[in-house]
Amino acid sequence: MDVNQYLEVFIEESKEHLQSCNERLLDLEKNPEDMSIVNDIFRSAHTLKGMSATMGYEDLASLTHQMENVLDAIRNNKLHVTPDLLDIVFLAVDDLEAMVLSIADGGDGKRDVSEVVSKLKQIEKGETTAQLSSKAEVAAAVAEVDLGTIITSKIEYDEFESTVIQQSKEQGFEVFEITVSLREDCLLKAARVYMVFEVLEKIGEVIKSNPPVDQLEEEQFDQEFTVTIVSKDQLDDIKLKVMKVSEVDSVEIHPVILEIDRESQVSSGTLVEEEPKKGQKEDTYLPEQTQKKKQASPAKQQVNKTIRVNIERLDILLNLFEELVIDRGRLEQISNELKNQELHETVEKMSRITGDLQNIILNMRMVPVETVFNRFPRMVRQLARDLGKKINLEIIGADTELDRTVIDEIGDPLVHLIRNALDHGVETPEVRKANGKSEEGTVVLKAYHSGNHVFIEIEDDGAGINKDKVLTKALKNGIVNEQTAAALTDKEVYELILASGFSTAEKISDISGRGVGLDVVKNTIESLGGSVTIDSKLGKGSIFSIQLPLTLSIISVMLVEIEKEKFAIPLSSIIETAIVKKEDILNAHNQRVIDFRGKVVPLLFLKDIFEVPCQETEDHFYSVVIVRKGDKMAGLVVDSFIGQQEVVLKSLGNYLTNVFAISGATILGDGQVALIVDCNALIK
């Protein structure tokens, strides 16, 4: 049977089952006596095991089978749910996720899971975590006595690999494990790995690596990797040749020592009994959707209501539609110039149809933020344990949808903000109790729509931000001077923590970062056309609010003209347009300003900022576009307003990435290029 046709279905359903396992395990930790939760996890594991076995992913099936045994023992009251037991089951789920991701990336799904399998087997026998660690210490001591100076193997070998090693030794070859450490400042790790493999393949044959080759190519490792090689060269010669590769920091090399005794291999987890066994009919599965196809006869088979489409095809579709939007603008302009009624009516109808088409295409690219939010409950659980805090994570509005491009980028900023809330925001149970709070802190992750934007908020009921401490640090780091600091509002003080290099941490922490601060979050969000605001009350908690555009590709703009050049200002930043008399312009702190509805708003002359060549003229009236970013406003002075239009946002390319206050460009209906103004940069 050709299983490749079912591969996509297998990957998608495996991810769903593993996500279900993660969520239900968190529920089980809160309700350890609830057998219905255990049954749900067992069903997901059982289905995943069957699917994996049918698709030929034996490592996946074997690990899931062992996890299933532990769950079955819980169902039959042979084992009780404890945090330590759940820790090991969570580790197993992590390994399963890594295997499925490997398969999704075109790998074989193989992974060294002997340690987790061994722990699961010992738990199944009723051994506690304390006994497991005790046995591990004894085993390590025995290994040290027996092996003397021989270093413990960093790679586990299956039966086939063990046979190859044994036969190579019998034929007079040596088998070495080589651990290569790259320098910390190594930029192209994959290239160095390739060069090391090239050297080794000239001296012998590489039979295994840890991590596997596909992970090494993708740079999915820290600075160290281990390779097993069969060769007739001497140990010192091999080491010398590998050390000649540039950016290699150190090389450890030692002979491979194998235990031939099969029983000892089974107990250590290097050999796992094949599962599922013959005769177990229930263990022969295809993915759920495939089972349904097999059960239904061709005559009765129902047509699927949904199909899976590769995201690259959607990107191509959007690019083609963007070209259509540009041509639509051109047709509208020609229609207005010719003043032909029939042409005008046809163009209007085309505009309505393309508008509907645009909504459909953009909605096809929309993805629920749930895909990002789902990873956080597990992360918060682990962080709370590491920090010794009690934390309840509430997720609201996970079905809110965002453009896939935005979804891909917001994961890391949200991780940083949540880690920050847990580490610096929420206090320890003892401190909370002393302050009259409940011992359990609450972190709320909320998403909702508002106009053409999506807001994501991270709120905690922790200690809040100490305004004085932030100001003191900002003054010390030279971020603000004393004169500016005195005029700052509370919100502006809080937002100083987003400045580059700012951190109030007393010591560097692995939880919320390495003292780098939150400027990375701010830069990422602003690169997506969004913004971050902070509100806080000392002793009550903080709210970090992220504002993001619904989509990044097609935006509504106000077209303006400066001399003969056209610029586009995003409507999302504009409050209103105005005509200002020359005598209404005032001066304050060497800055031209106007009084806009009782607020002093600085004026920025775009022809000066963008250095547009122009003749000096004495104007009595100025055309001004009032724009806003958060609480700050500015008036952009232009020569004239052209009107509103939907345009396609195009990148300026790699050569023009650092152009000040320009976020991209668009092609107008007459073929001219209009630059899109970045209002955030101007106000900043």
Commentary on this structure:
It is a single chain. This protein is α+β, with helices and mostly antiparallel strands and 684 residues long. It has five domains: 131 residues, Four Helix Bundle (Hemerythrin (Met), subunit A), CATH 1.20.120; 105 residues, Histidine kinase CheA-like, P2 response regulator-binding domain (Alpha-Beta Plaits), CATH 3.30.70.1110; 55 residues; 182 residues, Heat Shock Protein 90, CATH 3.30.565; 130 residues, CheA-289, Domain 4 (OB fold (Dihydrolipoamide Acetyltransferase, E2P)). Helices cover 45% and strands 23% of the residues. The chain has 24 helices and 22 strands. The strands form five sheets. The chain has a six-stranded mixed beta sheet with strand order 14-18-19-17-16-15. Helix 2 packs antiparallel against helix 3 and helix 3 runs parallel beside helix 5. The two termini are 62 Å apart.
Helix-strand layout with pairing:
Elements: H1 7-30, H2 35-55, H3 58-75, H4 83-104, H5 114-124, H6 129-147, H7 159-170, E1 174-182, H8 189-203, E2 204-210, H9 213-217, E3 224-231, H10 235-243, E4 248-255, H11 262-268, H12 288-295, H13 311-338, H14 341-364, E5 366-368, H15 370-373, H16 376-387, E6 390-396, E7 401-403, H17 404-425, H18 429-434, E8 440-450, E9 453-460, H19 467-476, H20 482-487, H21 490-494, H22 519-527, E10 531-537, E11 541-549, E12 554-562, E13 565-570, E14 574-581, E15 586-588, E16 591-596, E17 599-605, H23 606-609, E18 621-629, E19 632-638, E20 640-648, E21 662-667, E22 673-677, H24 679-683
Parallel strand pairs: 6-8, 13-22, 17-19
Antiparallel strand pairs: 1-3, 1-4, 2-3, 5-7, 8-9, 9-11, 10-11, 12-13, 12-20, 14-18, 15-16, 16-17, 18-19, 21-22
Helix pairs in contact: 1-2, 1-4, 2-3, 3-4, 3-5, 4-5, 13-14, 16-17, 17-22
